From TrEMBL:
This is ATP-binding cassette domain-containing protein. Residues 21-249 form the ABC transporter domain. Pfam families: ABC_tran. InterPro entries: AAA+_ATPase, ABC_transporter-like_ATP-bd, ABC_transporter-like_CS, P-loop_NTPase. It comes from the Bacteria. SUPFAM superfamilies: P-loop containing nucleoside triphosphate hydrolases (SSF52540). One of its GO terms (molecular function) is ATP hydrolysis activity. Belongs to the ABC transporter superfamily. Keywords: ATP-binding, Nucleotide-binding, Transport.
Amino acid sequence: MNQMTMKQQNVEPGKEAPLVLQMNGVSKIIKGKSIVDKLSFDIRKGEIVGLLGPNGAGKTTTIRMMTGLIRMSEGDVMIQGHSIRNDFKRAIAHIGAIIENPEFYPYMTGLDNLKQYQRMTDEVNDERINEVVQLVGLQEAMNKKVKAYSLGMRQRLGIAQALLQRPKLLILDEPTNGLDPAGIREMREYMRTIAEVEGISILISSHMLAEIEQICHRAVVIQNGKLVTVTKLGEEQEAAAQVKLTIRVDLLQSAIDIVEGTEIAQLNGMDSTRAELTVTLLDSNVPALVTALGIGGVGIYRITELKQSLEEDFLKWTGGNLIA
Ligand SMILES: Nc1ncnc2c1ncn2[C@@H]1O[C@H](COP(=O)(O)OP(=O)(O)OP(=O)(O)O)[C@@H](O)[C@H]1O
C-alpha cells in the first residue's frame, strides 16, 4: 500500500465530510404509474449507505436514474456537484457501478479482463490494477480464466473493474444476490476495506436488512418508490439511540417524582406490585438518571433494557415486507 492510500484510511464518514451524492426530489413515472416518487437523500465522503426496500420498492429504478441509464421524470442527481441531467459526462466520471451482473470475457484471465477494460478508457496502469486486485482479495486468481471463477469471485472482479478509474462513489445493486454465506461475509469485509482504504463512498442496494445492517453506516429505506426513513446504523445509531429501561426500586413513588422532575427521561409506565417503572431516555443520559435516583434516596435493585431491535423498526416502517 503506498503512502497516499495509507493516509486516506483515516477518512471519517459522517456529517463534516463533503457531499458526494445528492438526490434531489427524483421521480420516475412509467406509463402514468409512479415508480419512484420525489426521492431525496445524500451520501457523504467515505460513507457506506444502504438503499433498503422490499422487492419492487424501486431500488433498481433509482440506481438506473442515478447512473443515467434511464431518464428521470423529475428532480436531479448531483455527483460531486455535477448534475446528471445537465453535466452528465463530468458527473458520471465519478461513479463506478455494477448494476446487472458484470460481463467478462470468460476465456481470458481476470488480469487480462482488467487490462482490456482499462485499455478502453485509459492507458493500462499496472500499479492501479495491482491495487484494486488487492482490495478485493483476488491476487491468487488473477492468472486463472474467468470461466473458472465462482460467482463471488466474478462479483469481486466486477468491483475491481469499477474501481480502476478511482471513482468517488461505488454503486452496487444487490451485490450479494446468489452468494453463499461465506461469499456474503467476504463481500462485506471487502466493502469496508474499499471504503476505508480508497476513501470512497459506497451505495449498496438490498432487500435484506441483515446485510445492510452489518455493512452500512446509514440506511435509506424506501417502499413503493417513496422514502420511508433514513436511519443511522451500528455504532452511530447506538450513540444517538434512545433506550427503554425498566427499573426496580425500593421507593416507587419517589422514583416516579424524580423521573418526572428531570428533563432527561420520560416515564412510560409503572407496575406498583413489582415496584418497577419504565422510562425512555438517551443512552448517554442513563448515568445522570441513576445518579439522580441515588441522590433522591431511591435504592435500585435492577435495571433491565427493553430491546426494540432495528428489525422491529424496519418491519414497522415497511409493514412487514422486509426480509431480515
Ligand atoms: N420499465 C418498466 N415498466 C413498467 N414497470 C416497471 C418498469 N421498471 C420497473 N417497473 C416497476 O417498478 C417497480 C419497481 O421496480 P424496481 O426494479 O426498481 O424495484 P426493486 O426495488 O429494484 O426490486 P427488486 O429487488 O425486485 O429488483 C416494480 O413494481 C416494477 O415492476
